[in-house]
Here is the input.
Amino acid sequence: MTRWFEEVALDTPFDLGAHTFTAEEIVRFGKLYDPQYFHTDPEAAKHSHFGGLVASGWHTVSVGHRKMVDRLFAEEDVVRAEGGEPGVSGPSPGVNRMDFHAPVRPGDTVRFTLTVTSKRPSNSIPGWGLLFNLLEGHNQASQLVYSADIVGFSKLRDYKMPIRLKALAALSQLPGIGRLIRR
Amino acid sequence: MTRWFEEVALDTPFDLGAHTFTAEEIVRFGKLYDPQYFHTDPEAAKHSHFGGLVASGWHTVSVGHRKMVDRLFAEEDVVRAEGGEPGVSGPSPGVNRMDFHAPVRPGDTVRFTLTVTSKRPSNSIPGWGLLFNLLEGHNQASQLVYSADIVGFSKLRDYKMPIRLKALAALSQLPGIGRLIRR
Here is the structure.
């Protein structure tokens, strides 16, 4: 999220926009990362248990991630245009659960939403909080195709850094010493 | 796995081979699915908390999946060459957990392994079993970069279909009726 940790609202679905999957991009992703015939060969796929071409699950996940990144960048611009300072997101330490509920077929339009279901300050990294995000994708028939519980870091706005850590941070800016500390 | 459910050995790591990530492919994947500057811009990435370009987590996941698919196809060929009949894998219903432990940087060689940690017959789909797979990626320094608990379907070899289901399967081969049943 581009909100500060303290401002992130819980249980409020955030629309990330929709994407229409084409046969071309399904096959392109399949050939690169998931070359099973029901992801790469529209004719042969008719004889699979899917009855036709379907997107690789990792393709659906990657497109949902792209929609999220695009939406968060767009929101950052809005916050800056309003004279505010956007919050800072960190890397994702992982995924707690991920389910593929229904296949995504060529022509399907999947709308992705992000809902923060809970949050807490990080125990391991001072100044950061953890957001527990539910990412969902629904197709044009409102059928859930994909859901994931994804953990993300988010910077605390109101955090006061202890003097010991401040000194370390200042030292790490010096060439040589910084490299040594970060090792 | 291309072994039959009954033959799948537990807790035996299965080497899926290694992949060396180039800056070019890291940037290509980043531009398509994860356009954050530390995945797409080698110069700007130097000023990120990663200190340089890193692969999107979804890129690492997708490459690991590709290695798995390639390895399973290769094993199928071996089983057939030995006069055997390879087992049948089904789709993956999901992921129970996924962790990104360390960044993957240009030039890193990641070796992926698959370990079946447990298995049981499916409660919902007759004739199929569930495999609980641990997928891991280690870099050239033997550092774990990525791990995931992935669930997969695997066909039972010794399954006897009840007559009721056999009749349904036969009916589903008739045009019209098959389409009706599969709905």
Notes: The helical segments of chain B are 23-33, 37-40, 42-45, 57-81, 163-171, 177-182. Residues 5-157 of chain B form a domain with the Thiol Ester Dehydrase; Chain A fold (CATH 3.10.129.10).
